[in-house]
Specification:
With 148 residues, the chain is α/β, with parallel strands linked by helices. 43% of the residues lie in helices and 13% in strands.
Length: 148
């Protein structure tokens, strides 16, 4: 059995950060993408998070920049290869987001005791100070310490 000290740190990626990685190869997410790919970090998600990402790749603003069929394939492949699907946790009330669509990221991070939630969403980022008191670091990927 692996010691908890040797397990990769858990992280949750919101949809925008995930798409920055998978579709846009944004250099700001590369250190985290490399940490996930080298198993220094373990990216966790729920079915709802995957469904949201697959829905967003069909938004008109993204369709103008990327082929939605290819984007869908790339997103599915990323989830399958690099992510770990978790059961949807019960809603918690320690951190409540003003945007109900973003609550799932907070709920999963807290339920799984993930130390990092990577987000660019203003409503999520506004909870960073409260989250810190609960052991959760919320920030854009470029401001989060990369494991390993």
């Amino acid at each position: 059995m692996t010691s908890p000290l040797l397990r990769p740190a858990l992280c949750v990626l919101d949809t925008q950060v995930l798409l920055d990685w998978v579709l846009f190869d944004d250099p700001r997410i590369r250190p985290w993408a490399q940490a996930i790919q080298s198993q220094k970090a373990r990216w966790i998600y729920t079915a709802a998070m995957q469904a949201e990402a697959l829905r967003v790749v069909h938004y008109p603003a993204l369709v103008k920049r990327h082929d939605p069929a290819l984007s869908t394939q790339n997103v599915i492949a990323c989830f399958a290869r690099w992510g770990q699907r978790c059961a949807t946790p019960p809603a918690q009330r320690r951190l409540v987001c003003t945007d109900p669509d973003d609550q799932m990221f907070l709920d999963l991070a807290l339920a799984q005791h993930a130390p990092s939630l990577l987000s660019r969403d203003r409503a999520v980022l506004q909870l960073a100070r409260q989250a810190s008191a609960l052991g959760l670091h919320i920030s854009p990927p470029e401001d989060a310490p990369t494991p390993g």
